[in-house]
Amino acid sequence: MSFSGAPTFQWPPRGFSWRLYHNFFTSPVWLDSLRNSLLVALLTALLATTVGTAAAVALSRLHGRLARFVRTLLMVPIVAPAIVVAVAVYISFLGWRLTGTVPGYVLAHTAIAVPYVLVSVTGALGGFDQRLLKASASLGASPWRSFVRVTMPLISRGILTGAIFAFIVSFDEVVIALFLRSPQFQTMPVQMYNSVTVEIDPTISAASSLMVVAVTIIFLVPQLLRGRARRR
Amino acid sequence: MTHDTTVKATGSSPGTRSGTEIRLDHVTKDYGLEAPAVDDISLTIEPGEFMTLLGPSGSGKTTTLNLIAGFETLTAGTIVLNGADVSNVPPHRRNLGMLFQHYALFPHMTVAQNVAYPLRERRADKREIARKVAEVLELVQLTGRDDHHPAQLSGGQQQRVALARAIVFEPRALLLDEPLGALDRNLRSALQVEIRRIHREVGSTFVFVTHDQEEALNLSDRIALFNSGHIEQVGTPQQLYAEPETLFTARFLGDSNVFELGQAALDENLTWDGETWGIDPGTVAAHPGVRTRSAIVVRPEDVEVVNRLDEVPAGANAVRATVRDVEYMGAYRTLLLTMGERRLPGRARVSALHGDHAVGDDLVAWWRPRAQRIVAA
Amino acid sequence: MSSNKMRLSGWPLLLPALALLAGILLVPLGRTLLDSVSEPTWTLKNYENIFTDGVTLTVLGRTVMIAAAVTAAALLIGYPYAYLMTRVSPRARGILLVIVLIPFWTSVMARNFAWIIILQNGGPVQKVFALLGADHVVLYGTSAGVTIAMTQVMLPFMVLPLFSTLGSIDRRLLLAARGLGSSPTAAFWKVFFPLSRGGVVAGVILVFTLSLGFYVTPALLGSPQQSLVAQLLAQRTTQLLDFAAAGALGMVVLIVTLVLVAWANRMGGTMSAIGVVATSRTKDR
């Protein structure tokens, strides 16, 4: 479809051409939206991974009712309907002047991405022997140094997986992005949404294909790393 | 910055065998349970000493070690290393090496990287690190395994790597938390020899936690015997075995025949089950509890058996006994006895040459008053 | 365990996550709730309107109907699928798992766009129907089209809890039932199905609940005349700027969702699905 020569969403595709890809990579609107999406997704991955990893490490050491409650609370964004979150965030962000801004997108996306990091890092910590931290302390390493030299290398797969999920959650997020968009700042999924609802722009099929390929590649990163680690 | 100072502190006294004095002063750890885990303990561990904290599980010995290491915070009291109060110093600044039962090697690092870990944390330079790692691996006889990962080593080898890692930075003292508990019997005794040798060569203070009395007797300069949060008795292995102060100590170390006396006058003679027994004043424990409740303990190897009462030498203490069972131990036999009218269980160790004793035989067991010990019960 | 660790790396590490959650979710949601009961004055009028304005209730009803249809379709497809997964070789099971997870792997917009292409006038679905003799079947712009597209996304949430429940049923019980004279069908309905009920309940609640909040799929594939509750919410917020009314409706959806998910969680079996939600990802809504 994305290689179609026809100017509409016609199916089956007629003729073969790179025209839609050419459109995509020469259109400032599409390129801007891609750049915006990558920027927001990268910052979100960074922030969500940091915040989520810290929370996972903390929760792995805390026990009791309160800790369980906090864990559940932090998971709420996964089950809360995106539209309700989007509406609430939109109303508040209007007042805080965060709509249409990078910090606004990053904060909102981070809030919904943290649970994914929390789950994947918690999973990795499940196989981590906390007693190693005692050994590390006895050998003269501060808690921070112990985290960097012992905990982090041993849970790196969980952290990486969490970062990838956070990136994709943000990169692919439409609902909140639709509410936070401004004429000056749109993410790629929003541009795709526009191209279906407003513009009937067939470039979306090229964008769709690129999106699927990109997401698939990103998802394959940990698999590839695992393959390499095994060969070593 | 703190790293630098600690490196200097230990680096300034290489091979002087001086070690560190560890003083526990009225140390208490209370988790808010029924009784404190460690209850007002005072103990001074001499520089270069091999001190064993011995006791059953839950007696507070491991908590005490964790308090020294800094993994637990004190409820009350102070911990002083070479005159400096470290009660509020976090574990990574105490400069104490520690050996764990579960080895706690870093699985993502090679043997050499594991051993180099504490040196890298102290910012030692590369050549220095390489030299020290090689040296200490030779000390624990693991030269050539530098590039192995822990998973490729046997349990005994892993514990030797952990030992190397715990001593390579010349810590002020080495704390050992049941380090042999996960190993099988043969490996245990081999590593016991190794640990003793390394203690001799390194010359620093070792604090060793175990619940295994044989291990404690075999390794220690002194033993602190723990019982439900307090120290029952401190002394050399010989003192603890031969001169127990309390019934707990006597029972925990080795086998004992126990005759409980309750509150008794311990002047010259006393009567037990109709028998009159002599007392040697030198065998009465100094423990104040002896005045209120006491017991006589006699080691099985100090008990002799004869067939008739009139064979008992003059001045010996004797009791009638029936053979309940005989354990053949090779060089000797242990007779399991039922003693006196109260039918107390007892043991006597007799030479294999001593002749046959059949189950059900009626005998007389006797011992010299100076072989018995009167302890607080 | 040790108080030292508590002090050094316990609760303080949770602060950023909690601050973020509070600032981005709890405060806005709380504010929305506050608006919904205090605009224009302290009143429950906004909630009352849901039942009296004539539109909201219709839309809610339609949403529930579609969610129910999606749930039923997902169960009808998902149960045999999960059953098949328990019966095949581990290799084939892996392939089946990948297939069911495909919607997770494809981007929201790409997937919805693909459905537009497939369901549109002149699209492949229409041509297939034409071959069968039914001309001019257009699913694009209908609730049926929306239901089909949503079912695809929701299938994993049905299959995964079902798979974990079905996989843990002792198959010897079926043989025992057969041995006692039951027909294979009777053995299935009397023994196997009742034992799988936990997974069915979990899957049904999960799919139904998540289906209530779909926005992009109905907005792109449905018709404006047949809007669902999420579209109504969006319209009231961005076009009518009636934050109080939107807030009231949003609160109802949120609370229903959370209560149902908590209930499904209680029933057991959803933990696996929630885990997959987290390690795969939720789509659309």
Uncertain segments of chain A:
none
At the third CATH level, what is the topology name of chain C?
Answer: MetI-like fold
Distance between the termini of chain C: 41 Å
User: Which radius of gyration of chain C do the C-alpha atoms yield?
Assistant: 23 Å
SS content category of chain C? mainly alpha
Percentage of residues in helical conformation of chain C: over 70%
Task: Report on this structure.
The complex is a heterotrimer of chains A (232), B (377) and C (285). Chain A is mainly alpha-helical and 232 residues long. Chain A has one domain (26-231): Orthogonal Bundle (MetI-like fold). Helices cover 77% and strands 0% of the residues of chain A. Chain A is built from eleven helices and no strands. Chain A has helices at residues 19-26, 28-61, 65-79, 82-96, 102-126, 131-138, 143-154, 156-171, 175-180, 188-197, 203-231. In chain A, helix 3 crosses helix 5 (102-126) and helix 6 crosses helix 7. Chain B is of the alpha+beta class and 377 residues long. Chain B has two domains: 22-239, P-loop containing nucleotide triphosphate hydrolases (Rossmann fold); 250-376, RNA polymerase II/Efflux pump adaptor protein, barrel-sandwich hybrid domain (OB fold (Dihydrolipoamide Acetyltransferase, E2P)), CATH 2.40.50. Chain B contains nine helices and 20 strands. In chain B, the strands form five sheets. In chain B, strands 6-7-8-3-9-10 form a six-stranded mixed beta sheet, sandwiched between helices. The longest helix of chain B has 18 residues, at 185-202. The relative contact order of chain B is 0.12. The longest helix of chain C is centred in the first third of the chain and has 33 residues, at 55-87. Chain C has 285 residues and is an all-alpha fold. Mean pLDDT of chain C is 79; it is low at 1-8, 269-273 and 276-285. Chain C has one domain (54-284): MetI-like fold (Orthogonal Bundle). Chain C contains 15 helices and no strands. Chains in contact: A-B, A-C, B-C. Chain A binds chain B through residues 129, 131-132, 134-143, 145-146, 149-150, 153-154, and chain B through 3, 6, 69-71, 90-93, 95-98, 100, 102, 104-108, 117-118, 121-122, 162, 165-166, 169, 175.
Task: Offer a concise description of the structure.
Chain C: Belongs to the binding-protein-dependent transport system permease family. CysTW subfamily. The complex is a heterotrimer of chains A (232), B (377) and C (285). By secondary structure, chain A is mainly alpha-helical.
